[in-house]
Amino acid sequence: MGVGGAGMRGLAHLLADGGYRVSGCDRSGPPDAPELVDRGVELMGGHDPAHVRGTDLVVHTAAVPDDHAELRAARDAGVTVMGRARATGAVVNGRRLAGITGTHGKTTTTAMAALACEAGGLDPTALVGGRVPAWDAYARTGGDPAVVEADEYDRSFLELDPDLAVVTSLEPEHLESYGDVSDLEDAFTEFAARASGRDGVLYCADDEGAARVAGASGDAVSYGTDPTASYHVEERRRGGVRRCALFAPEGRVETVLPAPGEHNLLNAAAALATALRLGAEPERLNGSLEDFTGVDRRLQLLADRGGVAVVDDYAHHPTEVRAALSSLRDRYPDRRLVAVFQPHLFSRTRDFAGEFAGALTGADRAVVLPVYPAREDPIPGVDSGLITASADGGGLELGEPEDVTDGSWIDDLTGAATVVVYMGAGDVTELAHAAARSLRARTGGGP
Hints:
Layout: H1 6-17, E1 23-26, H2 34-37, E2 42-45, E3 57-60, H3 69-76, E4 80-83, H4 84-92, E5 97-101, H5 106-119, E6 124-132, E7 137-140, E8 143-149, E9 164-167, H6 181-193, E10 200-204, H7 208-217, E11 220-224, E12 231-238, E13 241-248, E14 251-256, H8 262-277, H9 282-285, E15 300-305, E16 308-313, H10 318-331, E17 336-341, H11 346-360, E18 365-368, H12 385-389, E19 396-398, H13 407-413, E20 418-423, H14 428-442
Parallel strand pairs: 1-2, 3-4, 5-8, 5-9, 6-8, 9-10, 10-11, 11-12, 16-20, 17-18, 17-20, 18-19
Antiparallel strand pairs: 6-7, 12-13, 13-14, 15-16
Helix pairs in contact: 1-4, 5-8, 6-7, 10-11
Protein backbone atom coordinates (compact mmCIF):
# COMPACT_ATOMS: atom_id res chain seq x y z
CA MET A 1 0.00 0.00 0.00
CA GLY A 2 1.49 3.29 -1.16
CA VAL A 3 3.63 1.57 -3.77
CA GLY A 4 4.28 4.88 -5.54
CA GLY A 5 6.27 6.20 -2.59
CA ALA A 6 10.04 6.33 -2.87
CA GLY A 7 10.77 3.81 -0.12
CA MET A 8 7.96 1.49 -1.14
CA ARG A 9 9.01 1.29 -4.79
CA GLY A 10 12.46 0.05 -3.91
CA LEU A 11 11.08 -2.49 -1.47
CA ALA A 12 8.62 -3.83 -4.06
CA HIS A 13 11.53 -4.08 -6.51
CA LEU A 14 13.64 -6.20 -4.13
CA LEU A 15 10.71 -8.44 -3.18
CA ALA A 16 9.81 -9.07 -6.82
CA ASP A 17 13.42 -9.91 -7.64
CA GLY A 18 13.41 -12.20 -4.61
CA GLY A 19 10.77 -14.40 -6.23
CA TYR A 20 7.65 -13.08 -4.50
CA ARG A 21 4.41 -12.31 -6.32
CA VAL A 22 3.94 -8.61 -5.65
CA SER A 23 1.03 -6.25 -6.18
CA GLY A 24 0.70 -2.63 -5.13
CA CYS A 25 -1.80 0.20 -4.97
CA ASP A 26 -1.50 3.92 -4.47
CA ARG A 27 -4.00 6.60 -3.51
CA SER A 28 -3.17 8.84 -6.46
CA GLY A 29 -3.56 6.09 -9.07
CA PRO A 30 -1.25 3.45 -10.55
CA PRO A 31 2.27 4.94 -10.43
CA ASP A 32 4.43 5.30 -13.51
CA ALA A 33 6.87 2.61 -12.40
CA PRO A 34 8.24 0.74 -15.43
CA GLU A 35 10.93 -0.93 -13.33
CA LEU A 36 8.15 -2.62 -11.30
CA VAL A 37 6.03 -3.50 -14.32
CA ASP A 38 9.08 -5.15 -15.89
CA ARG A 39 9.35 -7.32 -12.77
CA GLY A 40 5.73 -8.46 -12.99
CA VAL A 41 4.41 -6.26 -10.19
CA GLU A 42 0.66 -5.65 -10.56
CA LEU A 43 -0.05 -1.94 -10.06
CA MET A 44 -3.50 -0.65 -9.09
CA GLY A 45 -4.98 2.78 -8.47
CA GLY A 46 -6.83 3.77 -5.34
CA HIS A 47 -7.51 1.71 -2.25
CA ASP A 48 -9.96 -1.17 -1.97
CA PRO A 49 -10.31 -3.88 0.71
CA ALA A 50 -10.60 -6.36 -2.17
CA HIS A 51 -6.89 -5.78 -2.88
CA VAL A 52 -5.94 -8.00 0.06
CA ARG A 53 -7.68 -11.11 -1.28
CA GLY A 54 -5.25 -13.91 -2.03
CA THR A 55 -2.31 -12.17 -0.34
CA ASP A 56 -0.08 -13.53 2.41
CA LEU A 57 1.37 -10.20 3.53
CA VAL A 58 0.27 -6.56 3.37
CA VAL A 59 3.08 -4.00 3.60
CA HIS A 60 2.02 -0.40 4.06
CA THR A 61 3.63 3.00 4.04
CA ALA A 62 3.70 4.99 7.29
CA ALA A 63 1.23 7.43 5.74
CA VAL A 64 -1.54 4.80 5.91
CA PRO A 65 -3.46 5.03 9.22
CA ASP A 66 -3.70 1.91 11.33
CA ASP A 67 -7.50 1.78 11.02
CA HIS A 68 -7.52 1.97 7.20
CA ALA A 69 -10.20 -0.20 5.59
CA GLU A 70 -7.66 -2.28 3.65
CA LEU A 71 -5.67 -3.01 6.81
CA ARG A 72 -8.83 -3.93 8.70
CA ALA A 73 -9.82 -6.28 5.87
CA ALA A 74 -6.38 -7.89 5.95
CA ARG A 75 -6.48 -8.48 9.70
CA ASP A 76 -10.03 -9.82 9.52
CA ALA A 77 -8.84 -12.31 6.88
CA GLY A 78 -5.85 -13.36 8.98
CA VAL A 79 -3.34 -11.74 6.62
CA THR A 80 -0.11 -10.49 8.22
CA VAL A 81 0.20 -6.69 8.19
CA MET A 82 3.62 -5.06 8.35
CA GLY A 83 4.88 -1.48 8.08
CA ARG A 84 7.46 -0.56 5.46
CA ALA A 85 10.26 -0.16 7.99
CA ARG A 86 9.82 -3.62 9.47
CA ALA A 87 9.50 -5.20 6.02
CA THR A 88 12.71 -3.48 4.95
CA GLY A 89 14.50 -4.88 7.97
CA ALA A 90 13.19 -8.35 7.17
CA VAL A 91 14.68 -8.10 3.67
CA VAL A 92 18.14 -6.69 4.53
CA ASN A 93 18.95 -7.68 8.11
CA GLY A 94 21.28 -10.66 8.21
CA ARG A 95 23.39 -9.32 5.35
CA ARG A 96 26.49 -7.23 5.93
CA LEU A 97 24.48 -4.04 6.20
CA ALA A 98 25.49 -0.41 5.86
CA GLY A 99 22.67 1.78 7.16
CA ILE A 100 23.02 5.41 6.10
CA THR A 101 21.09 7.92 8.17
CA GLY A 102 21.02 11.64 8.95
CA THR A 103 18.75 14.64 8.91
CA HIS A 104 20.22 15.59 5.53
CA GLY A 105 22.06 13.82 2.76
CA LYS A 106 21.10 10.21 3.36
CA THR A 107 19.41 9.63 0.00
CA THR A 108 22.24 11.02 -2.11
CA THR A 109 24.90 9.41 0.09
CA THR A 110 23.20 6.00 -0.14
CA ALA A 111 23.04 6.21 -3.93
CA MET A 112 26.67 7.33 -4.16
CA ALA A 113 27.82 4.61 -1.75
CA ALA A 114 26.07 1.85 -3.69
CA LEU A 115 27.54 3.09 -6.98
CA ALA A 116 30.99 3.29 -5.37
CA CYS A 117 30.62 -0.27 -4.08
CA GLU A 118 29.76 -1.42 -7.60
CA ALA A 119 32.79 0.35 -9.03
CA GLY A 120 34.95 -1.06 -6.23
CA GLY A 121 34.28 -4.67 -7.18
CA LEU A 122 31.40 -5.44 -4.80
CA ASP A 123 27.88 -6.62 -5.67
CA PRO A 124 25.69 -4.53 -3.36
CA THR A 125 22.01 -4.84 -2.69
CA ALA A 126 20.79 -1.26 -2.42
CA LEU A 127 17.63 0.51 -1.34
CA VAL A 128 17.43 4.27 -1.94
CA GLY A 129 14.68 6.80 -1.25
CA GLY A 130 14.87 8.20 -4.77
CA ARG A 131 15.31 7.04 -8.36
CA VAL A 132 18.95 6.46 -9.26
CA PRO A 133 19.41 7.21 -12.99
CA ALA A 134 22.23 4.67 -13.36
CA TRP A 135 19.76 1.90 -12.49
CA ASP A 136 16.57 3.68 -13.62
CA ALA A 137 15.19 2.37 -10.33
CA TYR A 138 15.03 2.94 -6.59
CA ALA A 139 16.85 -0.28 -5.72
CA ARG A 140 19.56 -2.62 -6.92
CA THR A 141 19.35 -6.36 -6.49
CA GLY A 142 22.66 -7.93 -5.53
CA GLY A 143 24.29 -9.88 -2.75
CA ASP A 144 26.38 -8.62 0.14
CA PRO A 145 26.81 -5.95 1.28
CA ALA A 146 23.46 -4.21 1.55
CA VAL A 147 23.56 -0.42 1.37
CA VAL A 148 20.31 1.01 2.68
CA GLU A 149 18.89 4.45 3.42
CA ALA A 150 17.94 4.43 7.11
CA ASP A 151 15.02 6.78 7.75
CA GLU A 152 14.73 8.29 11.22
CA TYR A 153 11.06 9.25 10.80
CA ASP A 154 8.86 7.40 13.29
CA ARG A 155 12.01 5.56 14.50
CA SER A 156 11.95 3.51 11.31
CA PHE A 157 15.72 3.00 11.32
CA LEU A 158 15.48 1.07 14.57
CA GLU A 159 14.09 -1.84 12.55
CA LEU A 160 17.57 -2.19 10.97
CA ASP A 161 20.58 -4.07 12.35
CA PRO A 162 23.54 -2.32 10.71
CA ASP A 163 27.10 -3.62 10.66
CA LEU A 164 28.18 -0.14 9.56
CA ALA A 165 26.16 2.85 10.79
CA VAL A 166 26.78 6.01 8.74
CA VAL A 167 25.57 9.27 10.30
CA THR A 168 25.68 12.26 7.95
CA SER A 169 24.04 14.87 10.17
CA LEU A 170 21.70 15.44 13.08
CA GLU A 171 19.47 18.46 13.55
CA PRO A 172 16.00 18.92 15.05
CA GLU A 173 13.56 17.23 12.66
CA HIS A 174 10.52 14.95 12.80
CA LEU A 175 9.73 16.28 16.25
CA GLU A 176 6.15 15.16 15.71
CA SER A 177 7.56 11.63 16.08
CA TYR A 178 9.82 12.38 19.04
CA GLY A 179 9.19 14.01 22.39
CA ASP A 180 12.06 16.46 21.97
CA VAL A 181 15.51 16.83 20.44
CA SER A 182 17.05 14.74 23.22
CA ASP A 183 14.68 11.89 22.36
CA LEU A 184 15.67 12.19 18.68
CA GLU A 185 19.36 12.10 19.56
CA ASP A 186 18.86 9.07 21.78
CA ALA A 187 17.29 7.21 18.83
CA PHE A 188 20.28 8.05 16.61
CA THR A 189 22.63 6.88 19.34
CA GLU A 190 20.73 3.60 19.69
CA PHE A 191 20.92 3.06 15.93
CA ALA A 192 24.64 3.78 15.82
CA ALA A 193 25.44 1.61 18.83
CA ARG A 194 24.16 -1.47 16.99
CA ALA A 195 27.25 -1.35 14.75
CA SER A 196 29.69 -1.30 17.64
CA GLY A 197 32.13 -4.20 17.52
CA ARG A 198 31.38 -4.83 13.85
CA ASP A 199 32.15 -2.29 11.12
CA GLY A 200 31.44 0.52 13.56
CA VAL A 201 30.17 4.06 13.08
CA LEU A 202 31.20 6.41 10.30
CA TYR A 203 30.22 10.00 11.06
CA CYS A 204 30.60 13.47 9.61
CA ALA A 205 33.12 15.44 11.66
CA ASP A 206 31.76 18.68 10.14
CA ASP A 207 28.39 18.15 11.83
CA GLU A 208 28.07 18.72 15.57
CA GLY A 209 25.04 16.47 15.97
CA ALA A 210 26.66 13.56 14.14
CA ALA A 211 29.81 13.98 16.23
CA ARG A 212 27.79 13.81 19.46
CA VAL A 213 26.15 10.58 18.35
CA ALA A 214 29.53 9.10 17.47
CA GLY A 215 30.98 10.18 20.80
CA ALA A 216 28.21 8.35 22.63
CA SER A 217 28.63 5.16 20.59
CA GLY A 218 32.39 4.75 21.01
CA ASP A 219 33.47 2.61 18.05
CA ALA A 220 33.57 5.42 15.49
CA VAL A 221 35.68 6.96 12.73
CA SER A 222 35.14 10.33 11.07
CA TYR A 223 35.00 11.79 7.60
CA GLY A 224 34.95 15.42 6.54
CA THR A 225 36.89 18.49 5.50
CA ASP A 226 38.77 18.71 8.82
CA PRO A 227 42.34 17.48 8.17
CA THR A 228 42.18 15.42 11.38
CA ALA A 229 39.24 13.35 10.07
CA SER A 230 40.06 9.68 9.49
CA TYR A 231 38.70 10.10 5.96
CA HIS A 232 39.75 13.61 4.98
CA VAL A 233 38.19 15.09 1.85
CA GLU A 234 39.34 18.05 -0.23
CA GLU A 235 37.84 19.77 -3.24
CA ARG A 236 40.14 20.24 -6.22
CA ARG A 237 39.33 22.18 -9.39
CA ARG A 238 41.23 21.56 -12.59
CA GLY A 239 40.30 23.34 -15.78
CA GLY A 240 36.89 24.21 -14.33
CA VAL A 241 36.21 20.57 -13.42
CA ARG A 242 35.35 19.85 -9.81
CA ARG A 243 37.14 16.92 -8.24
CA CYS A 244 36.91 15.17 -4.88
CA ALA A 245 40.11 13.86 -3.27
CA LEU A 246 39.70 11.52 -0.29
CA PHE A 247 42.68 10.72 1.91
CA ALA A 248 41.83 7.42 3.60
CA PRO A 249 43.62 4.79 5.68
CA GLU A 250 43.13 2.41 2.74
CA GLY A 251 44.73 4.85 0.30
CA ARG A 252 43.93 7.98 -1.69
CA VAL A 253 40.85 8.10 -3.93
CA GLU A 254 40.06 10.84 -6.44
CA THR A 255 37.01 11.31 -8.63
CA VAL A 256 35.30 13.98 -10.65
CA LEU A 257 32.24 15.21 -8.74
CA PRO A 258 29.54 16.72 -10.98
CA ALA A 259 27.08 17.22 -8.10
CA PRO A 260 27.37 20.85 -6.90
CA GLY A 261 27.60 22.19 -3.35
CA GLU A 262 29.72 21.68 -0.25
CA HIS A 263 27.15 19.21 1.06
CA ASN A 264 27.72 16.94 -1.94
CA LEU A 265 31.48 16.98 -1.29
CA LEU A 266 30.70 15.59 2.17
CA ASN A 267 28.18 13.13 0.73
CA ALA A 268 30.85 11.86 -1.66
CA ALA A 269 33.35 11.50 1.20
CA ALA A 270 30.83 9.44 3.18
CA ALA A 271 30.05 7.29 0.15
CA LEU A 272 33.66 6.54 -0.73
CA ALA A 273 34.54 5.88 2.91
CA THR A 274 31.57 3.52 3.19
CA ALA A 275 32.68 1.57 0.14
CA LEU A 276 36.23 1.32 1.48
CA ARG A 277 35.09 0.08 4.87
CA LEU A 278 32.91 -2.53 3.16
CA GLY A 279 35.91 -3.88 1.25
CA ALA A 280 35.92 -2.01 -2.06
CA GLU A 281 39.29 -1.85 -3.82
CA PRO A 282 40.68 1.71 -3.44
CA GLU A 283 42.23 1.92 -6.91
CA ARG A 284 38.91 0.95 -8.51
CA LEU A 285 37.13 3.83 -6.76
CA ASN A 286 39.08 6.44 -8.71
CA GLY A 287 36.57 8.11 -11.01
CA SER A 288 33.70 6.10 -9.51
CA LEU A 289 31.37 9.10 -9.09
CA GLU A 290 32.20 11.02 -12.25
CA ASP A 291 28.95 9.97 -13.95
CA PHE A 292 26.78 10.57 -10.89
CA THR A 293 24.18 13.14 -11.93
CA GLY A 294 22.18 12.97 -8.72
CA VAL A 295 19.04 11.28 -7.51
CA ASP A 296 15.62 12.35 -8.77
CA ARG A 297 14.26 15.36 -6.89
CA ARG A 298 17.73 16.35 -5.65
CA LEU A 299 18.53 19.50 -7.66
CA GLN A 300 17.11 17.67 -10.69
CA LEU A 301 17.18 19.78 -13.84
CA LEU A 302 13.87 19.30 -15.68
CA ALA A 303 14.27 21.85 -18.47
CA ASP A 304 16.57 24.67 -19.57
CA ARG A 305 15.13 26.65 -22.44
CA GLY A 306 15.09 30.30 -23.48
CA GLY A 307 17.27 31.38 -20.57
CA VAL A 308 15.04 29.68 -17.95
CA ALA A 309 16.03 26.55 -16.03
CA VAL A 310 13.44 24.56 -14.05
CA VAL A 311 14.81 22.53 -11.13
CA ASP A 312 13.02 20.07 -8.83
CA ASP A 313 14.34 19.54 -5.29
CA TYR A 314 13.22 17.67 -2.19
CA ALA A 315 14.43 20.30 0.32
CA HIS A 316 11.93 20.47 3.19
CA HIS A 317 14.10 21.54 6.14
CA PRO A 318 15.67 25.02 6.52
CA THR A 319 19.21 23.64 6.27
CA GLU A 320 18.30 21.81 3.07
CA VAL A 321 16.66 24.89 1.57
CA ARG A 322 19.74 26.94 2.33
CA ALA A 323 22.08 24.31 0.85
CA ALA A 324 19.97 23.91 -2.30
CA LEU A 325 19.92 27.65 -2.98
CA SER A 326 23.65 27.95 -2.31
CA SER A 327 24.37 25.09 -4.72
CA LEU A 328 22.24 26.70 -7.43
CA ARG A 329 24.06 30.01 -6.94
CA ASP A 330 27.29 28.12 -7.53
CA ARG A 331 25.94 26.31 -10.59
CA TYR A 332 24.20 29.36 -12.13
CA PRO A 333 26.20 32.40 -10.93
CA ASP A 334 24.84 34.74 -13.61
CA ARG A 335 21.14 33.92 -13.30
CA ARG A 336 18.36 35.30 -11.17
CA LEU A 337 17.28 32.70 -8.60
CA VAL A 338 13.56 32.14 -7.96
CA ALA A 339 12.37 29.71 -5.27
CA VAL A 340 8.92 28.13 -5.09
CA PHE A 341 8.63 26.49 -1.69
CA GLN A 342 5.88 24.17 -0.47
CA PRO A 343 6.05 23.70 3.33
CA HIS A 344 5.66 20.06 4.34
CA LEU A 345 3.66 19.37 7.51
CA PHE A 346 1.92 21.88 9.77
CA SER A 347 4.12 20.91 12.71
CA ARG A 348 7.34 21.55 10.75
CA THR A 349 5.97 24.88 9.52
CA ARG A 350 5.15 25.89 13.10
CA ASP A 351 8.51 24.80 14.48
CA PHE A 352 10.74 26.30 11.77
CA ALA A 353 8.84 29.26 10.29
CA GLY A 354 11.58 31.75 11.10
CA GLU A 355 14.34 29.47 9.89
CA PHE A 356 12.51 28.83 6.61
CA ALA A 357 12.07 32.58 6.10
CA GLY A 358 15.79 33.15 6.66
CA ALA A 359 16.79 30.34 4.30
CA LEU A 360 14.48 31.54 1.52
CA THR A 361 16.05 34.97 1.51
CA GLY A 362 18.91 33.25 -0.31
CA ALA A 363 16.76 33.52 -3.44
CA ASP A 364 16.13 36.72 -5.37
CA ARG A 365 12.43 35.94 -5.25
CA ALA A 366 10.58 33.37 -3.14
CA VAL A 367 6.99 32.20 -3.43
CA VAL A 368 5.58 30.18 -0.52
CA LEU A 369 2.72 27.79 -1.33
CA PRO A 370 0.07 26.40 1.04
CA VAL A 371 1.24 23.77 3.51
CA TYR A 372 1.23 20.19 2.23
CA PRO A 373 -0.37 18.34 5.17
CA ALA A 374 0.79 14.79 4.32
CA ARG A 375 -0.15 12.68 7.34
CA GLU A 376 -1.19 15.59 9.60
CA ASP A 377 -4.44 17.34 10.40
CA PRO A 378 -4.36 21.15 10.30
CA ILE A 379 -3.09 22.96 13.39
CA PRO A 380 -5.13 26.08 14.26
CA GLY A 381 -3.26 29.25 13.43
CA VAL A 382 -0.56 27.47 11.41
CA ASP A 383 -0.28 28.19 7.70
CA SER A 384 2.28 29.43 5.17
CA GLY A 385 1.72 33.00 6.33
CA LEU A 386 3.84 32.18 9.39
CA ILE A 387 6.84 31.89 7.10
CA THR A 388 6.24 35.04 5.05
CA ALA A 389 5.48 37.03 8.20
CA SER A 390 8.77 35.91 9.73
CA ALA A 391 10.91 37.38 6.96
CA ASP A 392 12.88 40.39 8.13
CA GLY A 393 11.92 43.26 5.86
CA GLY A 394 9.44 41.12 3.93
CA GLY A 395 10.53 39.90 0.51
CA LEU A 396 8.60 36.62 0.55
CA GLU A 397 5.24 36.24 -1.14
CA LEU A 398 2.37 33.81 -0.78
CA GLY A 399 1.17 31.99 -3.87
CA GLU A 400 -1.12 29.23 -5.09
CA PRO A 401 -0.13 26.22 -7.22
CA GLU A 402 -1.85 27.60 -10.30
CA ASP A 403 0.21 30.78 -10.01
CA VAL A 404 3.55 29.05 -10.58
CA THR A 405 3.00 26.72 -13.53
CA ASP A 406 1.07 28.40 -16.32
CA GLY A 407 2.27 30.21 -19.41
CA SER A 408 2.03 33.69 -17.93
CA TRP A 409 4.28 32.60 -15.04
CA ILE A 410 6.83 31.29 -17.54
CA ASP A 411 6.57 34.49 -19.60
CA ASP A 412 7.29 36.50 -16.45
CA LEU A 413 10.41 34.46 -15.74
CA THR A 414 11.86 34.89 -19.23
CA GLY A 415 12.50 38.59 -18.67
CA ALA A 416 16.02 37.71 -17.47
CA ALA A 417 18.23 34.62 -17.30
CA THR A 418 16.59 32.70 -14.48
CA VAL A 419 16.67 29.43 -12.59
CA VAL A 420 13.46 28.55 -10.76
CA VAL A 421 13.62 25.79 -8.17
CA TYR A 422 10.53 24.02 -6.80
CA MET A 423 11.24 22.74 -3.30
CA GLY A 424 9.41 20.51 -0.86
CA ALA A 425 8.61 16.92 0.08
CA GLY A 426 4.97 17.02 -1.07
CA ASP A 427 3.36 17.18 -4.49
CA VAL A 428 5.29 20.31 -5.48
CA THR A 429 7.22 18.00 -7.81
CA GLU A 430 4.08 17.85 -9.97
CA LEU A 431 4.15 21.65 -10.23
CA ALA A 432 7.81 21.54 -11.25
CA HIS A 433 7.06 19.11 -14.06
CA ALA A 434 4.04 21.18 -15.14
CA ALA A 435 6.22 24.31 -15.27
CA ALA A 436 8.82 22.44 -17.33
CA ARG A 437 6.11 21.40 -19.79
CA SER A 438 4.88 25.00 -20.01
CA LEU A 439 8.43 26.17 -20.65
CA ARG A 440 8.96 23.66 -23.43
CA ALA A 441 5.63 24.58 -25.01
CA ARG A 442 6.51 28.28 -24.78
CA THR A 443 9.91 27.78 -26.40
CA GLY A 444 9.02 25.40 -29.21
CA GLY A 445 8.61 22.00 -27.59
CA GLY A 446 11.28 19.31 -27.41
CA PRO A 447 13.13 18.06 -24.33
